[in-house]
Amino acid sequence: MGRVAGERELRIRMIEKFVQRSFLDRKLAKAPEFLGLGRDRLGEYFDAEFYKLEYPDVASGRIDPLLHYMKFGWRENRAPFSGFDVDGYVATQMNGDRQTCPLAHYIRFGPAKPAPVPCDAKAQDERHNGYLRWYQSQDENWAQEMLNLLDALGMDAGRLSDLPLGRHLQAMFSPQHYRRQQGLGPEVSDNECFLRYIAFDLPEGVEPGPFFHEPTYRRKAVEHGLPPIRDESAFLHWMRHGQPLDISPSPLFSTESYLRANKDLEEFRWSKITHFLLHGIDEKRQFLPEAVIEHGIGVDTPNSTRRFIDAHGHDRSAHDELAAMRRFLGSQRMRDLVGKANDCDPDVTTNLDLPAYLPPWHERAYADFKHTLGLLPGGAYRSVVLIPFCKVGGADYVAGILARTLSEIDGPVLVVQTDQADWARPDWFDDVARVDLSGAMAALDQDGRTRTLYEFLRRLRPAHVFNVNSQLTFQTIQRFGRQLSTFAQLHAYYFCADRTPSGDEAGHPVSNFAPVFEHLTTAITDSVELAETLGARFMLPPDLARRLRPIYTPARTEPSAVPVVEAQVRGAENRKRPVLIWAGRFDRQKRFDLLLDVARSLQEVDFLCWGKAVLDPAPDLSDLPGNVTLHDPFTSYGDLPLEEVDGFLYTSDWDGIPTVLIELGAMGMPIVASTAGGVPELIDETTGWPVPVGSTAEDYATAVKDMLAAPRDRIARAVALRHRVTERHSGQSYASALSEILQEAS
Amino acid sequence: MTDISIIITAHREGILAGATIRSALDAIAHAEAEGATTQCIVVLDRTDALTRSVVASGVSGRAEVIETDHGDPGLSRNSGIKAATGRFATFLDGDDLWSENWLLAAWGAACDRPEAVWHSHCNIVFGQQRNIWWHVDSEGPFYDPDYLGWANYWDAMSFAATEIYRTLPFRANDLTAGFGHEDWHWNVQTIELGIAHKPVPETLHFKRRRARSQMSLVSKHDAVIWPD
């Protein structure tokens, strides 16, 4: 016994290695959609010019038309050349097979001329047979690969060699069912589960999943007069005797119902069960006469047919209920009852060929929602912080600070990503629980997304919901804010507005403030200036204006023990020329053009610049002043020669309180800065050299000269700035402000 | 004690209420022929003259007619329950129909399981939509508790012990606050109390789908069920 168990363990380790080497993925791959034909061969028949003219979306994109056709087009029923009737060809020449590229089929089996034309029955028959022969050879190849794999594992493949193995076996296999049966976790991949099944369980006659229902098959075997099952496993008996006769081993599937629901398959000459397993499930074809099965549209939402079979394939009570529905649906009893209702109101139709809904299987949106629920981590959460994504932006950083602080002062927090899957800085969020809904939401329309997020939050029932720039959350609050605010306090963060090229304000403070404000407990801003602007803009009375709460963002770094300005002033005499740093995006907002003009005005000063264009087209850098040196964006403040310069220049036209000024302020850097947005809350005449927004390059040059001319004043103002940052932009002050909000809300 | 109180709730269905009453009378006659005793109540909520007239003509003294000013389907049903004297009660919306066997079959099922709420085996939806909607057994394999949080399994045309409806009345819709779907909410509450919802085999309700129904009004307001 011990030796047998040891051998099994050994083989499982071998299987794991197979899977790790991705060897198995290739072996288990489905038949190639292009029938072994390569791009060049397809290209001989593909008409790129026609394709671009016919499909303007392809023409307007940058993708190569043939590549588009191979990746997407054939699956979307697009024609590869003029006159090719895809639907007609698939129906008449390919037995409705939509897993194979019609162009590849046409090249391989179709007439050797540039358009499929009607032809005589004999030629059509030959093509049919050629296709089916090819199809069967795929099964044979697949079966041989499986036997080879078993051989490579040192197992006796002979026990399976006389079985009619085919790809339907893989299609019947349910990894979920197998994991449940074997007590395996999700870490065992689907492919590894399948190989374990082939290696250990199939030879013992174990069925591959709930599509095989032994009592059903035993009954049908008797009804069809098949050889007695005796000691053989029922599943192996089905493979040998039942499957070749197309006898369904599942009470959920019958050939008659499948054909009734899929009239295009009436001429399909091969096994309907195999068609269902290999194609019908993935094509989301209907198969139950008493219930429509709909599928979610989310990218990762599982196929509902597979879920249905998994859930009910072995469930006797489900079979009984479905049978009762089926009996009633086609009964004289029902027709009589409907007839009498029709007497009362002829609008009650006696035509009962109607779609039948068995909730929840009829509803696409619910399939997606159910999948979303499965992503939800366990546990209860005091707060949910919603973010669009985590790239490397200031708002992403603030969301991390917010989530960590809430977690420390108020209990468990769940971070929910709603718009995109980027998760660039997990370190900003430490161990806070997170769920990414962006994939599940991507395919839904706005109604579906907002409804799903509302239900998601209703289920979580947090005390507080914080939105940090998630567009979907703003939309959800607009639609369901009344309802959400009955069980959770709603808070939204606002950062400075952006500007359009024509100078208009844009972004969340413009488009997502007024529509949601009535539902918010607090609207948090990162500057007093923004809170005052919003309050004044809408003439908010004091009780409403109180909901506007500025909270200064904490510095990421601890203030240095000695301000850098001291080293700068000490080392100034060693520098031949004064040096200033400028760092930021080369976008309109940051006014890199102004920096260049300042540099032209101050030929005696060197400017070291870090940055690149992100949102706007890159500026022309071909004619830079000689005293400007460019660097790629810095990744840490340690990359900057902070002690070997004489100060920092900041030129933005609009902003909140930029983190670069907070961080440099914490280090004790002398700063000349525009008075954009909330900057004056940090930089004033006592903590730096403010320059009003809209000033000329000469005005900035004057401020820079003033700063460079007064070393003592530089030290005094940089130290005062460092003190201000320490006082206002600490983690402690942030936590206190947040605590106050939570307490007031409760 | 009367066996079944039949409560027909009408609003401004006009002559459609006539077909509803005819359907109810057929089902009543069918049940009474098998020994059931019945009480018929029509609740006219903020009705109009046409509906009032059609109802009066249709029931012609065979029903107690109550006029209310709730402007709410749930409160109308509660008014009907207040007047009900039957051991069991069942509702019929003023533009829908029952299959002839509904009352008798539901009565039989409810006598066996009086603690449960009973629904038709399926609804045949007609009018602006046409489909068949199976009523799932909350004790059966197709019941998914998550779905009841997302959407409604069962409509309000249920059959149950009157005491259940008295103990747990319907809640008034509050569309201003964004809450509605009183029947769905009632189903959630009963399920939370452990009351099963079950289909009566081989019975039908015929649900008319039309514009400007109460349900479409609730949906238009983006109303959802109450969170509690």
Could you provide a short overview of the structure?
Chain A has 746 residues and is α/β, with parallel strands linked by helices. Among the domains of chain A are: 2-161 and 182-206, no CATH class; 380-550, Glycogen Phosphorylase B (Rossmann fold, 3-Layer(aba) Sandwich); 564-729, 3-Layer(aba) Sandwich (Rossmann fold), CATH 3.40.50.2000.
Give a verbal description of the structure:
- The complex is a heterodimer of chains A (746) and B (228).
- Chain A has 746 residues and is α/β, with parallel strands linked by helices.
- Among the domains of chain A are: 2-161 and 182-206, no CATH class; 380-550, Glycogen Phosphorylase B (Rossmann fold, 3-Layer(aba) Sandwich), CATH 3.40.50; 564-729, Glycogen Phosphorylase B (Rossmann fold).
- In chain A, strands 4-3-2-5-6-9-10 form a 7-stranded parallel β-sheet, sandwiched between helices.
- In chain A, a hairpin with a 5-residue loop joins β7 (498-499) and β8 (505-506).
- In chain A, α1 packs antiparallel against α13, α14 (214-223) crosses α15 and α22 packs across α35.
- Chain A is elongated.
- Chain A starts with a helix and ends with a helix.
- Residues 112-118 of chain A have low confidence and may be disordered.
- In chain B, the strands form 2 sheets. A 5-stranded mixed β-sheet of chain B has the order 3-2-1-4-8, with helices on both faces. A 4-stranded mixed β-sheet of chain B has the order 5-9-6-7.
- Chain B contains 8 helices and 9 strands.
- Chain B has one domain: Alpha-Beta Complex (Spore Coat Polysaccharide Biosynthesis Protein SpsA, Chain A), CATH 3.90.550.
- In chain B, α1 packs parallel to α2 (49-59) and α1 packs across α4 (102-112).
- Chain B has 228 residues and is of the alpha/beta class.
- Chain B has helices at residues 16-33, 49-59, 73-83, 102-112, 145-150, 162-167, 182-192, 214-220; strands at residues 4-10, 38-45, 64-68, 88-93, 97-98, 117-127, 131-134, 159-161, 197-209.
- Chain B is globular, with a radius of gyration of 16 Å.
- At the A-B interface, α19, α20, β1, α21 and α24 of A face α1, β6, β7, α5 and β9 of B.
